[in-house]
Amino acid sequence: MACDEPCAGPCEPEPTKPAPECFENSVSPISCTKYQMCINGIERTVHCNAGLVHDGESTECNHESELPIGHECGPYIPPTPTPECEESVVEGQSWNNSVSRIRKTKKA
User: Fold this and answer.
1) N or C terminus: fewer CB in 10 A for the chain?
2) Alpha-carbon gap, residue 26 to 98, rounded angstroms
3) What are phi and psi of 64, to 5 degrees?
């Protein structure tokens, strides 16, 4: 007779599986500003303080300038402009020149 049927006894709860063990001070990155760390055998989520980032390996957060160049959590480095196109450089044109060109085009 199966448990919980009429005239049968209650079902015994299934044994719970133990949580996977973590190794003390082991780190698993979640993002650039938080990671999981094993503390006293328990995985805990650690959040970096404002202005700090996690490098994905260490047990602490650092300023982004301390990370190697090109690190995904490091500071943004803008791309090098090509010789044909230089960022923030504007060539001036006179409004009068544009208007006179338009008038000449309409007359032709």
Assistant:
1) C
2) 66
3) -60, -25
Over the stretch 38-53, which tens digit does the pLDDT of each residue have? 998 899 999 999 999 9
Pairwise CA distance, residues 37 & 23, whole Å? 9
Integer Cα distance of 35 and 30 in angstroms? 5
Query: How many residues belong to the chain?
Result: 108
Cβ atoms 50, 57 nearer than 8 A: no
Overall pTM > 0.90: no
Residue spans per domain, the chain: 31-68
CA distance 89 to 21: 58
C-alpha 35/C-alpha 53 separation (Å) is: 10
